[in-house]
């Protein structure tokens, strides 16, 4: 965890860390107002073949649960780091990111499953797909921005310490 470096205080990284899971959280909150579609009126014409697409619910819920679990582990690692070093790094956004991500992804899995049982086709909603894709894109941008703003000495020291399984010097 490189929370004490000057890179972690970069305001762009702070905004990206908070914005990424917030998009999913806003989408999850918007699902509260979604209602199941009305049943179609009976028609004298009966269709014989109807193409339907069924989302892979088990895969979707597994991915959402795994994402939620990684946010939980990230938050726990940050808290353990802060307790061991007796220093809570200010303005990193890691603590807020972990909390919002945990609530957003676990909430989407739980609320989406509940709405799916009630007849709402949650996993085919465009806003759910767009928010997940935008969140992933912001996470990739955050990783690239963090990697490009890290000093070369820090990168080589981190790689060497990681390969030798040593603690990274601050």
What does this structure look like?
The chain has 170 residues and is mainly α. The protein has one domain. Helix content is 65%, strand content 0%. The protein has 5 helices and no strands. The chain has helices spanning 11-30, 57-85, 94-117, 126-149, 152-164. α1 (11-30) packs parallel to α3, α1 runs antiparallel to α4 (126-149) and α2 (57-85) runs antiparallel to α3. It starts with 10 loop residues before the first helix and ends in a 6-residue tail after the last helix. Mean pLDDT is 82; it is low at 1-8.
Short description:
With 170 residues, the chain is an all-alpha fold. Helix content is 65%, strand content 0%.
Separate helix tally:
5
Shape: elongated
How would you spell out the order of helices and strands? HHHHH
Structural class: mainly alpha
Mean pLDDT: 82
Distance between the termini: 10 Å
- Low-confidence blocks of residues: 1-8
Helix proportion range? 55-70%
Task: Note the beta-strand portion.
Answer: under 5%
Number of strands: 0
* Biggest sheet overview: none
Provide the domain count.
Answer: 1
């Amino acid at each position: 965890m490189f929370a004490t470096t000057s890179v972690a205080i970069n305001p762009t990284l702070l905004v990206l860390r908070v914005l990424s899971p917030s998009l999913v959280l806003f989408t999850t909150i918007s699902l509260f107002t979604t209602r199941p579609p009305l049943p179609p009126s009976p028609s004298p014409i009966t269709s014989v073949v109807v193409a339907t697409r069924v989302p892979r619910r088990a895969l979707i819920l597994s991915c959402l649960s795994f994402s939620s679990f990684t946010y939980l582990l990230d938050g726990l690692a940050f808290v353990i780091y802060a307790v061991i070093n007796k220093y809570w790094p200010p303005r990193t956004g890691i603590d807020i990111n972990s909390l919002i991500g945990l609530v957003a992804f676990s909430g989407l899995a739980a609320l989406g499953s509940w709405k799916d049982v009630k007849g709402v086709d949650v996993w085919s909603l465009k806003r759910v797909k767009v928010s997940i894709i935008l969140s992933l894109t912001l996470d990739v941008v955050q990783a690239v921005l963090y990697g490009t703003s890290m000093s070369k000495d820090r990168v080589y020291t981190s790689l060497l310490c990681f390969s030798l399984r040593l603690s990274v010097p601050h």
